[in-house]
Amino acid sequence: MGDAVHDLLWHTGPEVGAELIDRLGAPAPDSPDTGPRAQGATPPPLIAYRLRHGVAAGLVGRHGKGRRPGNPELLLRLLERDDPELNATLYRESEWAGLRRAILSQRAHRPGAPADALVPLDPTLRTELTTTTHYAHLEPALWARDPDLALWALLAHPNPEPLAALAARITLLKAGQTARLRTVSRLTRHPLPADLSPALRRELGGAHMLRDLPKYLAKQLSPETLVRRARGTTTVGRARSVVAGVPVPDWSAVAAAHRAEPLPWHAVAVFAEHPRCPPELLMEFTGKYPQTIEVIPVPPAELLAACVAEGSDSRTKTVLLRRLATSTADLGELLAVRPARLLLTALDQGPVSAVATQAELAYVLGRTLRAHLDRTGPALWPALYTALPTLNAPIHELFAEAEATATATAETKAEAKTRKAATAAAAPTPTPLPRPGRQAAWAYTVLIDLAGTADDATAFLDDAHLAPLAGTGTLPAFLAERLAGIGGPITLRVLAGNPHTPRAILDRLAGHADPAITAAVYRNSRATDAQRRLVLAAPELDPTLRRELLSTDDPVLLRTLLAAHDPGLLRALALRDDPPLDRTNIRTQDARTLAGRVLRLHAALRLAETSGVPALASLPENPEITDALRTGRTDPLRAALAESAQTSLRALESVREWEQHSRLPKSELTAALIDPAPDWPALTEAVRAGRLCAWIRGALGRRPDVSEPFARAVAERDPTGRHLSPHHDVPAGAPGRTHPYRPHVIALLDSGALTVERLLAETPAVEVLDAAPGWPRLARVVARHLREHLGTDTRAWVVAAHLARGDVEPTLIELAATSSAAAGGAPDRPSDCRSALGSSNDTEGR
Fold first, then answer.
1. 3-state secondary structure of 588
2. How would you class 480 by CB atoms within 10 Å of its CB: exposed for 0-12, middle for 13-18, buried for 19 or more?
3. DSSP state at residue 732
4. Residue ranges in 326-394 assigned as alpha helix (H)
5. Rounded to two decimals, what is the model's pTM?
6. Is residue 662 scored above 60 in pLDDT?
7. How many CA atoms lie within 13 A of 78 on its CB side?
């Protein structure tokens, strides 16, 4: 149940997520992180719960090390709980120097705590620190309040930072341990600050009463000194190392220094990336350095409003996406963003942490759009298409303006029709439609997705105006199908080159008669090997694509050239000397030579089949080509290739399950793995007979030219899904499954072999929910579907959590429908389209 709750919390939103945790309990702190690409991410509602209860699991990570997330704001909020055990966990799991110093200083950090309040040090942590010799622990121990820790750090640290060594010595003097300090001075030669006066050095030696050294140290650690040192650095990295020693800088000192003399960019970047930087100071930073927006982790609402007022689309979009990703934006703030096209495109961008907010916003906008369509009819779409590129207004004004324009247009047409009937005058010429830019076209496709239909939205557009829609980054499947059916050559060419075009449509476009369209399919990064071979097999090839292929060194493209119909391409391929047939550099030269010979023989055979055996006369002589020219038949080439295929099969079959090598020479095994044209039927039979070991099956299954029968045979032999091919949707037959089992969902979605629609309709919901955090586009679709059916009714979400981990294994569509019905229907949140965008009467009035 814990995993089901964890997966659902990505899609609930903060309020429903908190209620769901209260009803079912929080997932265990050691529950596995979901999704292969989630990188240990934690759902926002679970973060809020763990912060309230002081659970550090999943929140600490390795700050600044590029490993698991270590959000400084979360670390500071955990530090403010003043819990010794929690502080020990923070110290062990975070490598933030300032946080470790703050813990060892034993000062209370909760808001409103007295200045002299102390937090006890965890005994276990203290014992660990008094025995460690690790530099990363000795450095912060020099700043410890405990004199025993300071003494050990002075003795064990080989070369401490001068100011830290001075701080540790002052700690010993304050504790009255002069004898220990003399021992340290006798046994070590640690450097001290260069500006330490002789009087201070005598005071440090215990000859005088401790009086001026604490003042000196306080001055060195003052906020003004910190800002001065940050200003004196020359790079962001050095400035970050200066500021890292302080958990929260004195922002008044930073602001005063910046107003007196603007800080350099590298210092501004470090202060701005701190989560506690005040909004007023951030506004000053962005006024001086606009690029500051890129480093602010949680932009405040004031910054978003300022960017909107300024009218900078790029800055507004950056701040909007950051606020969506951090789940800090409310609905009213988002609906006030202008122009509306930025808000619409933001619905399809951002990480998985934004999907719950995006689903709520999509639900509100979808209902409002459908309400306007019910009142205005299809005439609303031309008005929306015309207004999106130029109207600098929020979304509710866009809808109101489009409805008013559609109503006025309908009235004008009616008057013109009446006038024409009465006077026989010509009707007025319609206003030409504008050509939308990338952002406006993307926003229009989002509106089509929200409406759920594309017929009326595209019926009035010609080929030139449909083409921008075909190139959008999040093209809905039903819109792509519509564009493929009604689009002209421009639209089809754009559609063929869009990586987000469904594979079924690319299959049709690969056989198109227009070479420009088929060339776009070939260049598509998600085109399959079969689609590229179909393009090359056509009698006519795009000239630009042909020139590109004559000089390509891409091993994936080189293999597809064996299906070419063009004799020039085949002749050039047959003349290649040891071409690269693998993307890595670990292949032996002998293997490349063997595989290159096979590639040249296949190219010669294809040339003889398409242009006749006499065409082989232009190729270099070798025994097979000489025999083919002498006999006028291709049998010598076929025999040589058959023998090579048998050699490759023997090399692959010689590897046993417990081995990673073959009894044959390594070059023969490597050449078999990178064979440009494997005998897939023979390999499929070998898999079914159990003659190929698991890692050989996996290596062949990952090839982009793998055949579907081979991939299916591998799935039958491997029900765990470890070696399934990412290029064909052949689910494994796991025992006891009533639905397809796809453990490699994200790989299939990335390659285009599996569509989101098919995944939701066939795969168990528990697997979809588990994969969603690793693929934000899937997470957005899941969140929208759950929001549409479950609403904000906690009862429905509780039922969904139980069903997701039950024995029935429903699909996500079945889970949502069943949960909604069991809860009696999901009511809408009070902030629905009426409260967020105004009532229908208000909209009509505008």
1. coil
2. buried
3. B
4. 331-335, 340-346, 355-376, 380-387
5. 0.86
6. no
7. 32
